[in-house]
Structures are given as C-alpha cells and as structure tokens.
C-alpha cells in the first residue's frame, strides 16, 4: 500500500474511532464529557482526528437540558421559578458544557446576568459513572499490571464533588478575582472574573454578572476587536503563570471555552481577558510551589543538575528525563545541557513534530503510568492545566510565549522567597540581577525567533510547509 493510501485509510480509521468516542461521551454525559474535553487538549499525544472532533463538539456544544429541567432546578434550589426571581430569563441556553448550561437573564435592577444551571441528575449519576470507570481501570490493570491508573479514579472522586458544588466554584472565583485585582498583580485590570450574585446562587445554580466577549481562540473575533493573537497568548500565559508561581491557587480547566476576550469598558482600544468556570482549582503549598518554580527555571535554562535535583524532589526518581519531557513536550536530549555545549530549545512548528512526541508517548506508556502514580497529586492537575494552555497557545499560533512568561514568573517567585528568608539589600540586589539575566536572555530569544521565523517562512513557502523553529537554549 502506498504512503498516501495508507494515510487515507489511517485517517478514516481514526475518524471512525473519534466519532464513536464522541457518541459514547454524549450518550453518558457528565464525567464522560469531561474526559472527552481533556482529549481535545492532547494534540501532542493522540491522533489529530480525535482532537479536532472533540474540540468541535465538546467545549461549548454539549447536550442541552430542557427548559422544564432548568426551571425545576432553579425552583428547587432558590425557592421560586425563574420568572419570580429575574426580570427576564432566556429559555434558550447561550452555551452548554459537561456539567451545566448558561442562560442569559436580567435582574430587577436592570443588570445583565449569566445563570449557570447544573444538568439534572449529575450528582446521582456521578457515583455510578466513577464506579464504572473504576471497574474498567481494574480490568486494564489485571490485563496489563504495568498500566495502573487507579490514581485517576482517586483524583476524580476528590474533584468531581467539588465541581458539582457551585458554592465551591463561587468561592474559587472570588479568590481568583481578589488575587488578580491585587496591587502586586502583573495583570491587574487586564484580566477579569465575573462577580457572583450570592442571593441568586446555590449548589446547583450560579448567578454572575454577564460579560460579552469572543472565545480566546476565535481569530476572526479577535480581528474584529483588533486584538493581536500574540498579545492574547502572552496575557493568558502571564495570568496562569502568576496563578501557579505567585499565588499557588490555580484554575485547572483553562480550555478555550472558559476564556473570553472583550473590549475593556471605558478604555477605547483596550481589551480584557475574562476567566470563566472556576469549578476545578488546585491550591499548592509553598514547598511544592517553589520546587515547581525551581524545576521550570532549570528546564528553561537547560540546567541539568538543577533539573535532576528538583524533579527528584517531586517524586520523579529515576524517571527525571521522562518527567522533563512530559512537562516540556520535548525529548530529553533537547532539554538538558550536553557537557556545557549550547543546547537547543525547540519550539513546536509542525504536525510532524507532534507525531514524534506521540510516538514517544506510546513507546514510554508504561513508564508514564508509573510516574503519574508516584508524583504528588497536585502535579496531576498542573499537567492538565499545561495541556490546556498549550492547546490555546498553539491555536493562537505563538507557542514561545509560554516560556517567556514562565521564565519571568519562576524567577520572580524564587527571588521573592529568597527576600522573605533573608531580608536585606543583598537579596534585593540578587533579585535585580536575576531579573536582568532573564530579560536579557529573553530579548536574545525574541531576536532569534524573529530572524529564524523570517528564514523559516521563506524556506517554507518554497517547500510548501513551515519548518519547526529551533532556538538556542537560554544559557
């Protein structure tokens, strides 16, 4: 069979599998849709047909609850039907996700509101769904003992009840809103979280201020707002790096449907990033937060000794190269410093490169399963967060921004901790030195990206494809 014929057969096979997975998720709803949404973020691990199918249908086009179900839940939780609680309440949802759907409403004070109403029966069915998944994972472990994903069920049993409690989501949203509005935040007034209307909220109904906007990866919508995709990618990366390394309080479901871009009120030409859906958070203790910052700083600056030290402290053991590859989506020989020689930091630029990474995932599947079982539990959700952010970054076409923001926030977090432990002029000067080193190296990276990007476009036009861009490591 010729290469083109084989590719066509393989594409058809993957598409059939993706369609069946979509049907399975929609038929079962709830937790299964959450799993399907995560598949949509894994274009470095699973075939493109699965990713594209899940993205098209899973992010904000999930099955819809009927008006009778929505009105019934509002009445049961808030004590009155929607028409008694709101001046207006649209029966048709604006969007529907795995756990709930959102309706536009108007308060009696004239405010536009967004009302998130949980799909009926999720609390009752989630235990059965988790039991089914636990049974499947037990069967997999029995057939192949090296693939023990029991930790996945443990995490789901811990996180699903939290996501189904909208009062918990309200608390998460308010903490996030407070953190990002603080005077020390680098994204103050640039990133907003809708305010919660507590009298009209409950465990299954969440009412918040309405915010117009376009999905963060809607390139046509961004063009209408005259917002450059590169600027959006930079702000998304800066926001989540601040959450991770500065606050240790992390929104762990940042897929494209949970982020909007809107024109900034009262600021002609300005724009804001809107963060939605605060159901899934992870709070990091200071020890893990700083260890993780040290690891990422070592990864970005290709410091092999520091990579091994920090990764081992987080349970990687003998699997440090694999752990580093999972975090960066690069082979170990592209991550580490080779005997002091300049290493190369690779920035994704082609489907062929992602196919290479998928191949590594298959080759080391059992080792990955073991590592996931051994690492600290908060890291599991951080890996999910990384997957979501990479997917957004790639959709916006500017994958270098993640490394830029990460370098700055890691350095700032570590400098702040050093100043806390050893207050004084010496620590402040060391902090200024670290910041200067980071900024000078990032400036060099920007120049190299620009030069090699121009060269790549020129060569790509001649060859009909755009090659990956390779950058010298920041050493």
From TrEMBL:
It comes from the Eukaryota. InterPro entries: ABC1_dom, ADCK1_dom, Kinase-like_dom_sf, Mito_struct-func_regulator. Signal peptide: none annotated. Transmembrane segments: none annotated. Residues 58-309 form the ABC1 atypical kinase-like domain. GO terms for cellular component: mitochondrial inner membrane. One of its GO terms (biological process) is lipid homeostasis. Belongs to the protein kinase superfamily. ADCK protein kinase family. This is Putative ABC1 protein. It comes from Auxenochlorella protothecoides (Green microalga).
């Amino acid at each position: 069979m010729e290469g083109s014929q084989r590719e066509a057969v393989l594409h058809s096979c993957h598409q059939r599998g993706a369609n069946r997975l979509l049907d399975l998720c929609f038929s079962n709803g709830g937790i299964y849709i959450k799993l399907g949404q995560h598949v949509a973020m894994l274009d470095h691990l699973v075939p493109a047909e699965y990713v594209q199918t899940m993205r098209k249908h899973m992010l904000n086009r999930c099955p819809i609850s009927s008006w009778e179900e929505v009105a019934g839940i509002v009445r049961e939780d808030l004590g009155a039907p929607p028409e008694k609680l709101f001046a207006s309440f649209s029966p048709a949802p604006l969007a529907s996700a795995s756990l709930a759907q959102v309706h536009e409403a108007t308060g009696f004070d004239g405010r536009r509101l967004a009302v998130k109403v949980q799909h009926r029966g999720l609390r009752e069915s989630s235990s059965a769904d988790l039991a089914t998944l636990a049974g499947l994972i037990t069967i997999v472990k029995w057939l192949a003992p090296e693939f023990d994903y029991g930790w996945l069920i443990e995490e789901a049993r811990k996180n699903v009840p939290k996501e189904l409690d909208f009062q918990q989501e309200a608390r998460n949203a308010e903490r996030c809103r407070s953190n990002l509005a603080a005077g020390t935040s680098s994204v103050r007034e640039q990133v907003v979280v809708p305010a919660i209307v507590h009298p009209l909220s409950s465990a299954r109904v969440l009412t918040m201020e309405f915010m117009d906007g376009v999905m963060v990866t809607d390139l046509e919508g961004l063009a209408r707002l005259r917002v450059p995709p590169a600027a959006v990618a930079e702000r998304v990366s800066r926001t989540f790096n601040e959450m991770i390394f500065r606050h240790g309080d992390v929104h762990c479901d940042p897929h494209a449907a949970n982020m909007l871009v809107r024109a900034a009120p009262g600021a002609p030409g300005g724009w804001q990033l809107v963060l939605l859906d605060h159901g899934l958070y992870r709070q990091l203790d200071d020890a893990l937060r700083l260890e993780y910052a040290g690891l990422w700083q070592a990864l970005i600056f290709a410091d092999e000794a520091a990579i091994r030290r920090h990764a081992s402290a987080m349970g990687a053991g003998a699997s440090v190269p694999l752990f580093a590859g999972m975090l960066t989506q690069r082979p170990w020989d592209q991550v580490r410093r080779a005997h002091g020689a300049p290493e190369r930091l690779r920035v994704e630029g082609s489907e062929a490169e992602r196919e290479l990474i998928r191949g590594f995932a298959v080759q080391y599947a059992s080792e990955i399963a073991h590592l996931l079982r051994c690492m600290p539990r908060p890291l599991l959700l951080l890996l999910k967060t990384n997957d979501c952010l990479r997917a957004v970054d790639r959709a916006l076409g500017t994958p270098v921004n993640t490394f830029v923001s990460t370098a700055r926030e890691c350095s700032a977090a570590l400098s702040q901790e050093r100043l806390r432990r050893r207050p004084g002029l010496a620590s402040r000067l060391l902090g200024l030195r670290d910041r200067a080193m980071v900024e000078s190296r990032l400036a060099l990276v920007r120049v190299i990206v620009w030069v090699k990007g121009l060269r790549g476009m020129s060569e790509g036009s001649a060859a009909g494809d755009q090659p990956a861009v390779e950058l010298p490591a920041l050493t």
